[in-house]
Amino acid sequence: MKNKQHNLDRNNFILAEILVGLLLFFVVLVITVKADLSSAETRLSDMVTYIKEQYNNNMKLDIASESKSLMRMIQSVEVLSQQIQQEEKTSDITEELLENYCTISYLTGVLILDENGQVQEKYCSDEVQAEEILSQTDQDVLLDVVDFHEKTYSVRMECEDGSYIDIAANGRQDKPGIVLVYYHTPERYTSIFNHSINSLLTGYSLEHNGTIVISENNQIVASNDKGLIGAKTEDIQELKCINESAVEKQLVRTDYQMIPDYGLMEKGRDYYVYAYMSADKIFAKTPRNMLYTVFIYLVIVGFMHALRWRMLQGHQKEQMRLQKEYTKNLESKNLELREAVFQAQKANAAKSSFLSRMSHDIRTPLNGIIGLIKINETHMDDRELVKTNQDKMLVSADHLLSLINDVLQMSKLEDENIEISHEPIDLGEISREVGTIISGRTAEAGIAFEIGKQELPVSYVYGSPLHIRQIFLNIYGNCIKYNKPHGKVTTTLKCLGEKNGIVTYRWTISDTGIGMSEEFLKHIFEPFVQEHSDARTVYSGTGLGMSIVKKIIDRMNGTIVVISKEGEGSTFVITLPFEIAEKPEEIPAEMDGEVNIAGLHLLLAEDNELNAEIARTLLEDEGAITTIVNDGQQAVDIFSRNKPGTFDAILMDIMMPEMDGLSATKAIHALDREDAGTIPIIAMTANAFDEDEKKCMEAGMNAHLVKPLDIQKMKEAVCRYLNK
Fold it and tell me: Which one of 60-64, 107-111, 412-416 scores highest in mean pLDDT?
């Protein structure tokens, strides 16, 4: 019994000694490792900071050299343009003239281009060809100098062989065209800069300082390890691990090999400086310190070495348990990571699909508008063709505006930022308005429009007239767009009953069109989805209409069901509940007669010169007198300096420098004069959402007009508030 107790006490004592020894060993290890890591981080950080400062100095010299060279090109092209203007009066421009100028001005070559950027005359003293230069220039910016002589186009182009070309161009003074000069710096001279970069690392040895790397644009341009120069940073595992940390001057451990490396990086303006070294160099003192610890440990507990193997077994079992737990946690983390990656890929795919669709849908009408403008430029005498092309441009512009409105509204609906108004409306009146519009469209398309039974026992309800019209115009529009020649569109309205002050109506709209497949019906309400890949080209659709309709109906607590058979047609069933409203005593009437603004003096605040010129022309064509200012502060100043009654109304843009339109409106109303609070102020802005109109009304404006400018709506707004 005593032997057992003795053995138990001895084992407990030995265990206590081992634990104390392990604790001592661990404390020394942690302190030593932290000290070595801190020392290495300080040493590497100081080193990359110093190299960065030296590299910045080299970069400043290079930028100064580039700026000086481009300034010389600009001066040369300006002088040559003046000489050409003088020579053109006496003789033609010859290659000999260009060669003489290149020799005098130390240029590599000169190109004389016409207004379309085509080469008319050139001279080149080396192997660089005009086509190579023109292919790398920004043609739109280059051609701008034809019409704007005060502009000068200058750029430095890097060539594949490491050389670079400095270019400057401006418009000809004598006639439409471009004068372009350039200077080619060969690779043997540009390489001098790279040599100077590598000289920064002279004296840093791999053995004592570790590996130092300077990279630009993901490529190593300098290193004290010559074998790394020219490699990509993502191909070097040490650099890849350091980049993943994304924290400057913080030591990072790389575990991809048996002996890990430690390193850090510091970011310059457009480059990175890395420094890393292997763990055996960083922890050079650690083994010695640990040997001292082991020696002390063995001296203190020398008699415990016989039992060490048992402790090792226990330690190994603990390690296995920890490894299993770590593996389990790692698998769980990997599962979460895979799910996150899947969601990220899904989001990226959606973004890429959106950008691709938007690129196509925006570029298509823009291409048509730009092409028609160019056709008109070359056929100015054919007034009938110009008029036809202008009508086509308006159609394309309307389509582009419709696309932008759909995308913005879709975004608002996705974020649930669209407010569905709650105001008294006459469903019968809205139905008649929509029916009138659709009758015209079906007649133009050669399609029959039949209005069936219409049950409307309660006409006055609360709702959003804008969104109700949008729902039915979208659905009718699809029925017309995707119908067959000489097809038919029919509609019926049924009242499903009244309960607790709520009346529910069901519209059934059918067509005899091309129909939809069962597979497509599963995705009909998804944004940008269309049955056929060529639908945008054939039917000019955006793929947003049904998605917008579904979201609006959902916000109105309604439902929509689509029944379709490919080749036979489609049926749309829309069910909407409405709160019953009292019949209004008086319905405001629209303005009678033709509105006329001739002789009115209008103050127009618009910071965009083109928009201001368009507005001035349209208003003056109607007989109005227009005074234009560029910002809200000028509007306040002009209004306050003129006597009361000078201006009949103010047209105010919202987003302007110095003072915006909302602040300007408040400032005008706050003036101490008799007409400050009565003069009509009408917003004329590209901010088209309901909250934008609400802000205008809160600022004291009388009306909110959305760009593009509709002169008829502007005339009606001005006359309406002047009549008040």
Answer: 107-111
CATH number of 601-723: 3.40.50.2300
pLDDT of amino acid 589: 45
Alpha helices in 522-608 (DSSP H): 535-539, 545-555
Amino acid at 234: E
DSSP string, 441-468: HHHHHT-EEEEEEE--S--EEEE-HHHH
State residue 489 phi and psi, 5-degree precision: -125, 125
User: Of 3.40.50.300, 3.20.20.70, 3.40.50.2000, 3.30.565.10, which CATH number belongs to 423-580?
Assistant: 3.30.565.10
Report d(CA 701, CA 683) in Å as an integer.
7
pLDDT tens digits, 540-589: 455 567 888 888 888 889 999 999 888 889 999 999 999 998 876 554 44
Q: How far is CA 644 from the centre of its chain?
A: 46
Q: Is the pLDDT of residue 536 over 60?
A: no
Q: What angle do CA 613, 615, 618 make, to 5 degrees?
A: 105
pLDDT at residue number 537: 42
Distance CA 499, CA 520 (A): 36
Contact between 112 and 182 under an 8 Å Cβ cutoff? The reply is no
Query: Cα(676)–Cα(552) distance, rounded to whole angstroms?
Result: 41
pLDDT in tens, 591-602: 445 678 888 999
Alpha carbon distance 693, 683 (integer Å): 9
What count of residues does the chain have?
Answer: 724
Whether the predicted pLDDT of 590 surpasses 50: no
For residue 37, what are the CA distances in angstroms to 252, 256, 265, 661?
A: 10, 19, 15, 59
Phi/psi for 683 (5° steps) reads -75, 135
Report the percentage of the chain scoring pLDDT > 70: 83
| Model pLDDT, residue 651 | 92
Nearest residue to 250 (alpha-carbon basis) of 31, 48, 53: 48
Distances (CA, A) of 117 to 73, 146, 175, 203, 515: 19, 9, 14, 52, 50
Per-position DSSP letters for 662-687, written without gaps between them: HHHHHHHHTSSSTTTTTS-EEEEES-
Sign of torsion over alpha carbons 229, 231, 233, 239: negative
Q: How confident is the prediction for the chain on average, in pLDDT?
A: 80
CA atoms of 262 and 254, how far apart (whole Å): 6
Say which DSSP state 643 is in.
Answer: P
Question: How far apart are the two ends of the chain, measured CA to CA in Å?
Answer: 114
Residues with Cβ within 8 Å of residue 415, at least 6 apart in sequence: none
Whole-angstrom CA distances from 245 to 135, 249, 263, 266, 281 are 40, 10, 11, 12, 22
DSSP result, 218-245: TEEEEESSGGGTT-BGGGSHHHHHHHHH
Q: Which fold has domain 310-417?
A: Helix Hairpins (1.10.287)
Residue ranges per domain, the chain? Answer: 12-300, 310-417, 423-580, 601-723
β 460-463/423-426 pair status = antiparallel
pTM of the model: 0.41
Query: Are 668 and 647 in contact, with CB atoms under 8 Å apart?
Result: no
The answer to whether 311 and 318 have CB atoms below 8 angstroms apart is no
Q: Which of 418, 403, 504 is nearest to 464 (CA)?
A: 418
Cis peptide leading into 457, omega within 30 of 0?
no
